[in-house]
Amino acid sequence: MPIIVKSIPLFMRILIFSLGVALTVGIGFSHYMLQVDLTLSFFFLFPLIMVTWFTGIWAGAVIAVISAVAWIPGDLQEAGIQTNFYLLAINEFFRLFVFLFIVIILSKLHELIQVQQELASTDYLTGIANRRAFFTLADAEIKRSRRYQQPFSIAYIDLDNFKYINDLYGHGTGDDLLREVASTIRRNIREVDIPARLGGDEFVLLLPETSARSARAVMKKIRDNLLSSMKEREWPVTFSIGLVTFNTPPATVSELILTSDNLMYKAKQSGKNRIRNMVKR
Hints:
Number of domains: 2
Largest sheet: 5 strands, mixed
Distance between the termini: 42 Å
CATH topology of the largest domain: Alpha-Beta Plaits
Strand order of the largest sheet: 2-3-1-4-5
Shape: elongated
CATH superfamily of the largest domain: Reverse transcriptase/Diguanylate cyclase domain
CATH architecture of the largest domain: 2-Layer Sandwich
Radius of gyration: 28 Å
CATH class of the largest domain: Alpha Beta
Helix content: 55-70%
């Protein structure tokens, strides 16, 4: 389903579909009453495009059928008693075919846009958000936290000994390891939490509306599961994590990342495989 359809609430999609039906019926009624020549179904295209784009292919197909049916009374009115019903039926089926063709083309175009959006915002290797997407999402969370005065937390996760895995087993195994890390993180977080790979072996996890105490519990659980996963696969990799809770949001995403990154390096310098946490008030 296209990304825009996903983001629109159900009641809004119902409203858009209902508006599309009303417009289509209204255009058909105007065609019948005023006997206006709607060349190439031009006026029917607006509700057809609107409904298909914002509510999906099946709703668009329904509007296409309604559009073709709404056209018939006007055609009968124009043709009068000399109506050739065979030719009329051919015209109506052709018109329906054109409407459905437009619906399919619009739907495919929308799917293509969705794919491009996902490629632009998703890390190609792990399937989680990339650096660009994270900056956008984190900026939105900073603004939301500032508006509602809610704390949030960020964890900067670095893989200890990752270079050793690449050197010993090859980059293919290294890629498998990164995918496993991303998968393990996703299995242990809420839907609203935002994991991302910033590059190389560095990951971040944004935890909206999460206090310092809750963030520590979440990251301990994630780290324990990550270590268990590494042990099962006999990968000698551990995790140094910098965890920062912001009671007052920072000015920029760069400051957000820098603060958690510096804390992660302190964890690494103090012996690796540990979580260092702090609260920014």
